[in-house]
Automatic annotation (TrEMBL):
A biological process term (GO) from this entry: maturation of 5.8S rRNA from tricistronic rRNA transcript (SSU-rRNA, 5.8S rRNA, LSU-rRNA)
UniProt protein name: Nucleolar pre-ribosomal-associated protein 1-like
Positions of region (Disordered): 269-303, 322-342
Matching Pfam families: NopRA1 (PF16201)
The species this protein was found in: Leptonychotes weddellii
Residues of the URB1 C-terminal domain: 1-110
GO cellular component: nucleolus
InterPro entries: ARM-type_fold, URB1, URB1_C
């Protein structure tokens, strides 16, 4: 390239810094060394894309139109494709450039076109994940931080909050969901973490935007963010990443039962034997120098799996399954159409998702905020469905995990201060699950439930915390199989007896609640 570059420099009196030097001459060269000249141009772009001024220069000269079109050309090999993605990622690190490259070049649509391929090389897939993550983080900026912990629209404010456009957030979501189908264990830890982090962030921010629209009385459509198939694919890919044999077997049974064609094809492709490249015949592609033959799936580090596990739990809580009534969620008939199989598939998928979420928190307890989101999801979308609740209560691991989580968030120290809100929410969930265990609720259960629901309406924090404590005494007996809640009844009798021996005056909240329980339960 020395002679080429020297000839180019000597042919100009000065370099026009409003252009990319030699871009068109070397990129469209018809010389015998055109590949080398094109590689030199890409090297110049990779090293030179540093700030918004570099982006504006390349955009003004039509460089991005050319390299984006060249990506799909038969002349563009895998290494050059990775260079193009690297150039785009360097440009996406600037906020203004990241927004303009999405607006002017429809970059997310261009990425979706790439993801339509049946197979993507691991390095190419890694670069796409990095590009999407960089684009989202740069465009989000401080909007995500500003939206956390604050109401989406202040009642007295005249100016609406500054949010990303809903269609842009939805495009990011669509691209990330399409990318889910290409996840594999051979990806590096940084790419896996970046993918799950980006998907979780997009879903949270979309919920913020939707809530802001509702507060401003704006009309929105298509509030569903994840389909049943999307959740099944997420669980399937995670079972491969974590090597969860139980989840794989449960997924296989549901997929075969409801004939989910896309997932059946994934299972079929996964079970194909790995054939060495030298055994694929004379027409097999030769491996490039330094390219390793992938015969085994690497195991991901435990820290990476733990981080991604938390993101996946949060992602699943954004799924609102369209579950049918109990009479519709029956065994699918032979030859049933996909529409008639959908209700049963939704129930089966909800059972799988909730079971995995609750089992995953056993070894790695969630934070208080994550627990509140999980409990709210159970209340809104799972507990109203008797079929799903029955399946969950049959699983001993799920019951044990729920009890350990309840003991963690409903201890005595968790009932003081702001933490008591999670304990109250957990108590409401467990009371509903306890009622679903037996044929008919006992008088004691009805009394505790009525007392707890009325206490939640009180403004006094001590009353709510006391009600959550009494519910915990009841639940810890009944959930473990006791016929009578002896711990709760003994505590009630002790409080009532002590109250009789003390002089009359203003009674504390626990005395009032215990007297109400004693009056409602004959044998208390």
């Amino acid at each position: 390239m020395y002679l080429k570059i020297n000839k180019f420099l000597l042919s100009h009196e000065y370099l026009n810094m409003n252009k990319v030097p030699g871009f068109y001459q070397f990129f469209y060269s018809s010389d015998s060394e055109q590949k080398t000249e094109r590689e030199w141009v890409f090297g110049l772009l990779r090293q030179g894309m540093r700030d918004k001024h570099c982006y504006e220069l390349c955009a003004r000269r039509g460089v991005f139109h050319i390299i984006l079109s060249f990506f799909s050309s038969p002349l563009c090999d895998g290494e050059t494709q990775n260079w193009i993605l690297e150039i785009l990622q360097n440009a996406a690190r600037d906020a203004q450039s990241a927004y303009e490259i999405l607006r002017d070049y429809s970059l997310l649509t261009w990425i979706l076109h790439i993801l339509e391929s049946k197979f993507l090389e691991t390095q190419l897939l890694s670069n796409i994940i990095s590009l999407l993550h960089t684009l989202w983080v740069t465009n989000l900026g401080d909007k995500g931080v500003a939206s956390e912990g604050q109401p989406s629209c202040q009642p007295g404010s005249q100016e609406p909050p500054k949010l990303l456009a809903l269609h842009l957030v939805s495009e990011f979501l669509y691209a990330l969901v399409a990318l889910t189908r290409h996840l594999r264990p051979t990806l590096a830890s940084a790419q896996l973490t970046g993918f799950f982090e980006a998907l979780d962030s997009v879903l949270k921010y979309r919920a913020t935007v939707m809530q802001a629209f509702k507060d401003m009385n704006r009309f929105t459509v298509n509030e569903t963010v994840l389909s049943t198939n999307d959740v099944l694919i997420l669980l399937h890919k995670w079972s491969l990443l974590e090597r969860d044999a139980k989840l794989q077997e449960d997924l296989r049974a549901a997929i075969e039962r409801y004939q989910v064609k896309e997932l059946q094809k994934m299972l079929k492709d996964k079970n194909k034997p790995v054939v060495p490249a030298r055994a694929r015949g004379p027409r097999a592609r030769r491996r490039r120098p330094g390219e390793a033959e992938e015969t085994a799936e690497p195991e991901q580090p435990a820290a990476t799996l733990q981080t991604c596990r938390g993101f996946l739990r949060s992602i699943l809580t954004h799924w609102g399954p369209a579950l049918p009534g109990p009479e519709q969620a029956q065994e699918p008939a032979t030859g049933a159409s996909p529409e008639s199989r959908a209700p049963g598939l939704a129930c089966a998928t909800a059972s799988l998702a909730v079971s995995w979420v609750l089992r995953s928190v056993a070894g790695h307890p969630p934070s208080r905020a994550e627990a509140a989101g999980l409990l709210g999801w159970l209340q809104r979308h799972v507990l109203p469905q008797p079929v799903v609740v029955t399946e969950l209560l049959r699983d001993g691991a799920v019951r044990g995990s729920l009890f350990r989580l309840y003991s963690r968030f409903c201890g005595a120290q968790e009932l003081v201060g702001p933490a008591h809100s999670v304990a109250c929410l957990f108590g409401a969930v467990l009371l509903q699950l306890v009622a679903a265990q037996g044929p008919a609720p006992s008088p004691c259960h009805l009394a505790v439930q009525s007392l707890f629901l009325s206490a939640l309406q009180e403004d006094d924090e001590a009353t709510r915390a006391t009600a959550a404590f009494l519910v915990s005494l009841y639940v810890k007996d009944v959930w473990l199989g006791a016929q009578r809640p002896d711990t709760l009844l003994t505590h009630v009798r002790m409080i009532c007896d002590t109250a009789e021996d003390t002089p009359s005056g203003d009674e504390e909240a626990i005395v009032i609640l215990c007297k109400n329980i004693a009056a409602s339960v004959p044998d208390a």
